[in-house]
Design brief:
The protein is α/β, with parallel strands linked by helices and 582 residues long. 63% of the residues lie in helices and 14% in strands. The strands form four sheets. It has a six-stranded mixed sheet with strand order 8-11-12-6-13-14, with helices on both faces. A four-stranded mixed sheet has the order 3-7-4-5, covered by helices on one side.
Length: 582
């Protein structure tokens, strides 16, 4: 194992590990861990007692001491009951600690992911973080459970090693080997034998098994990619059905599944060899102490009780020293989980650090000064936009598809960081941005209408009235129904539902990004008229392709494909009835 690898892995582990143990929950966490450690300590002491009991018991059997037999059985019963009790509570408290730690870590990752639109920046930045959902849901759980099980397992095995090594040293006596015309006496021979045997076993296991770390890392990625494709298929089932897209979907799913299987085959191949080694290792460990102890036993100097206790002690020391061998698959999985969570955390941090060079200020006006917007790789799509729009003067943004209209709105909304210049806008609470496809979360219709605010329960009359105004009367009696509304409602209905949201929130500045694209011209005109009537002091900034939209706006900003633009009052444009794109 290279020193560099160990150093890097330890650093990565520490970065993930320390948070919880230094958090506000630290005393609860440390208390629970101390209790688990204490219970394990007692368990090891009981195991020692149990091993001595074996010596006692077999000696009683060998001596036909029936009068001591029941006494010994009673001792066993007490020891066994205590062992059961401590094992159950050590496990139980470890699980409680696991839940608490996972809850804390999941919250941290969710906060970081959702903070400052990092989830969105990760996407726009084309970061190669795959499947953040899997990292938050599965990897954190694995990290916590494996850290606890491996850590506490290691601690317990260390205790076993220290306690039983002393016992084994005493029991094994010294071993004489003829050497250089004399004899070489090796004290605690069985301890040395198990030590050498374990070192050889660990070395071979690592040589064969270390590739499992990378393979496990990839396996989790391929599994998540496969699952993600299945989810996408389910979410886009209607479009795929219209396209009759089953064949390419099946091909795509097959390709992703093949990656899962091919990688898994490599894991199986490695694990087959590893299993062969660990099972052989365990089998040899049974016979090895018998072979070593046999000469002394057959010399008839020691009892069968001694033999049994020696073999048990050898087994315990052997188990403890072989911890890495027997846990290798878990260690490999644990290492890959650490790698995945760390890269995710680093990418989130990098995404969070992306700051636009825009200077923003607040005022009841939309004003841009030398606003330049680029793509993530730096190619500008809008150069030096200087525009001054007073409150109450509606603006329409037009231009060919792909020229950057939505990206301009994203920049004004503060979620597109690849921009520079100055922007003056009203305060966030007075603004509402509506995208082309409204987001309708899972939940009741009432919750959907109020999203992202919590829905009050006493507002039914108002909601029914607003649904009526937006021509959605048929939904008035479904306010408490829970549904996947984005699947049930037509796109036009969803867009009108978004207008209900506007009327509920009553913003003074409304940004509509093709928010009426699915409506017929009459309904679109009706919705704009409704907005102006219900919110007469609001300023509307629309992005749209429909030429009928022009009449609802006073100014037009026309974006060109080369990054230039034209900002002018609409009545100054000679051909009012031409398409907004022209
Ligand atoms: N995350 C991204 N990474 C790279 N390019 C992007 C990203 N998001 C948008 N773009 C590109 O930026 C350009 C402008 O996109 P935008 O969505 O603003 O266009 P638009 O004018 O609103 O188009 P449409 O009228 O078709 O909706 C497009 O060429 C698009 O491919």
């Amino acid at each position: 194992m290279q020193i560099g690898f160990i150093k890097k892995s330890s650093k990565n582990f520490w970065l993930l590990f320390k948070g919880y143990w230094q958090s506000d929950d630290k005393w609860k966490a440390r208390g629970l861990l101390s209790a688990v450690i204490l219970l394990n300590l007692v368990s090891v002491f009981l195991m020692l007692e149990m091993t001595s009991w074996f010596n006692e018991f077999y000696t009683i059997l060998q001596n036909y001491s029936y009068h001591l037999f029941w006494q010994s059985i009673s001792k066993f019963t007490i020891l066994a009951l205590l062992l059961i009790f401590f094992a159950v509570y050590a496990f139980y408290l470890q699980q409680i600690l696991q839940i608490k730690w996972r809850t804390w870590m999941t919250k941290q990752y969710l906060d970081q992911w959702l903070n400052d639109q990092t989830y969105y920046k990760l996407q726009t930045n084309n970061s190669d973080t795959d499947n953040p959902d899997q990292r938050i849901q599965e990897d954190i759980n694995l990290f916590v459970s494996l850290t606890l099980s491996l850590g506490i397992g290691l601690f317990k095995q260390f205790l076993v090693l220290v306690s039983f090594i002393a016992m084994l040293w005493q029991l094994s006596g010294s071993f004489s080997i003829p050497f250089n015309n004399g004899t070489l006496v090796i004290p605690g021979f069985m301890v040395w034998a198990t030590l050498v045997y374990s070192i050889i076993g660990t070395f071979i296991t690592h040589k064969i098994g270390h590739q499992l770390i990378g393979l496990n890392f990839n396996q989790q990625k391929y599994e998540a990619n496969f699952r993600f494709s299945l989810v996408r298929l389910r979410e886009n089932s209607e479009s795929i059905a219209f396209y009759r897209g089953e064949t390419p979907e099946k091909d795509n799913l097959k390709t992703r599944f093949i990656s899962v299987i091919l990688n898994f085959r490599q894991i199986i191949a490695r694990q087959k060899i590893l299993t062969g080694i660990t099972v052989s290792y365990a089998q040899i460990a049974i016979i090895l102490p018998i072979l070593i102890a046999a000469p002394r036993y057959f010399a008839e100097t020691l009892s069968i009780g001694w033999l049994i206790q020696t073999l048990t002690a050898f087994g315990k020391v052997q188990d403890a020293l072989s911890y890495i061998v027997t846990s290798y698959t878990d260690i490999a999985q644990w290492s890959s989980v650490i790698r995945r969570l760390n890269t995710f955390a680093i990418h989130m941090k990098n995404a969070d650090e992306i700051r636009s060079a825009i200077q923003t200020s607040t005022g009841n006006v939309l004003k841009t000064q030398n606003l330049t917007i680029s793509l993530p790789k730096g190619q500008p799509i809008l150069k030096d936009l200087n525009m001054d729009l007073p409150a109450g003067e509606n603006l329409i943004i037009t231009g060919f598809s792909g020229c950057g209209k939505s990206t301009l709105l994203r920049t004004l909304a503060g979620i597109w960081p690849f921009a520079s210049g100055k922007i003056t806008l009203p305060a966030q609470q007075n603004i509402l941005f509506l995208p082309q496809k409204p987001y309708l979360p899972l939940g009741t219709l009432r919750q959907t209408l109020y999203y992202p605010q919590a829905a009050p329960t006493m507002d039914t009359k108002n909601l029914v009235e607003l649904l009526h105004l937006c021509k959605l009367d048929k939904l008035a009696n479904q306010l408490e129904n829970t549904n996947d509304w984005s699947r049930i409602l037509s796109l036009g209905e969803q867009q009108r539902l978004a207008f209900v949201r506007i009327l509920l929130k009553k913003p003074t500045w409304i940004f509509l990004d093709e928010a009426t694209s699915a409506l017929d011209e009459d309904t679109e005109a009706y919705m704009y008229t409704l907005l102006k009537k219900e919110l007469p002091h609001a300023t509307i900034i629309s992005v749209g392709h429909h030429m009928t939209l022009l009449s609802h706006h006073k100014y037009r900003l026309k974006l060109n494909n080369n990054g230039s633009y034209l900002f002018s009052p609409l009545n100054a444009i000679p051909h009012m009835n031409s398409s907004p794109d022209c």
